[in-house]
Design goal:
The protein contains eleven helices and 13 strands. With 314 residues, it is an alpha/beta fold.
Length: 314
């Protein structure tokens, strides 16, 4: 049943990936999440990304990004930093500290803003719109595939966007057939330890769907654990003590690689968790917190190496 579900998910992804794409005619009208519309007069040649999260999706479709905001450490995201450097993308501000002078100097003909998140410049849309057409994309309510499609339509690169989605769907199908999925339930935890919120992935969130497509059977955490004011679509923001009630026999840790699982394995309070008892705790990857084309590929590649049918999980 587990493998059958994975096949159905992959079939859906492949069907969506091969939908015919009509050539863009200009101007293109982009609809923002609030219902407002932005007219993009011609294919952009100088895109400024005011959202470091969305920059990865733009780079994945070979959009002409000339400048991008940074993360809280004043860096690009590691999964696509080399791509940005090779394309000479200019570094802008950290998170949402918008610098309008830097925007003017970049001379963009399209500005991309996220609707939410720490990297949102939503409050500056009016000022940014005086410089260049400014569109808003809500990556929080869409998976990376749909986000990539939206950006493809706005930039005239729909064909490239669909190609990326199709490539990944085919890769996921291939990896699902090449790995041996552990028995029992699987959970994804952002492990932060005692006294902290320890988010647990929901099966229908981006992370849960990705592992489901590979054949893992995801455990559904109790939605009543959620302590956040936002919805629990992707992750339930669980208190530390709730982790001990998880039944998953396999656990992946968000933001961690294979060398960062010892803290959970040594946690005496959680020693009776099935995954801890069998030591089936794995890192999902340093860049797994935010899924885009690049980090999704990193996750799938790591799982293929770890669970290949020719090897045994360590």
């Amino acid at each position: 049943m587990n493998r059958r579900l994975a096949q159905l998910l992959l079939a859906k992804l492949l069907c969506l990936a091969v939908l015919p794409v009509a050539a863009a005619s200009w101007p293109v009208v982009h609809r923002n999440p609030d219902g407002s519309q932005v007219s993009i007069p011609a294919p952009p040649k100088r895109i400024l990304s005011a959202s470091v999260t969305l920059t990865g999706s733009l780079l994945a479709i070979d959009a002409p990004v000339v400048a991008s905001s940074l993360n809280g450490n004043r860096r690009f995201f590691d999964q696509w930093a080399q791509v940005a450097e090779s394309r000479k993308v200019r570094r802008l501000w950290a998170l949402n500290a918008v610098d309008l002078e830097a925007v003017y100097l970049a001379k963009p003909d399209l500005i991309v803003v996220s609707a939410s998140g720490a990297d949102s410049a939503l409050e500056s849309v009016r000022e940014l719109s005086q410089i260049a057409p400014t569109i808003v994309v809500d990556y929080a309510t869409h998976n990376w595939q749909e986000t990539t499609r939206q950006l493809g339509r706005a930039t005239g690169l729909s064909e490239r966007a669909e190609q990326r989605v199709a490539e990944f769907a085919e890769k996921t199908r291939s990896v699902a057939q090449a790995i041996r999925v552990p028995d029992g339930l699987t959970a994804i935890i952002s492990y932060n330890g005692p006294g902290m919120i320890n988010p647990v992935a929901m099966p229908k969130g981006s992370h849960g769907l990705l592992l489901s497509a590979l054949g893992f059977r995801m455990e559904s955490p109790d939605p009543h654990w959620h302590s956040g004011l936002d919805s629990a679509d992707d992750f339930v923001k669980a208190q530390y003590e709730h982790l001990s009630t998880l039944k998953a026999r396999t656990v992946f840790l968000l933001r961690q690689d294979e060398n960062d699982v010892d803290a959970l394995l040594r946690d005496r309070v959680l020693a009776r968790m099935p995954a801890v008892r069998t030591r089936q705790v794995y890192g999902l990857g340093k860049n797994s917190f935010r899924i885009d084309y690049y980090s999704a590929n990193e996750i799938v590649d790591a799982i293929r190496r770890r669970f290949a049918k020719t090897t045994s999980p360590q």
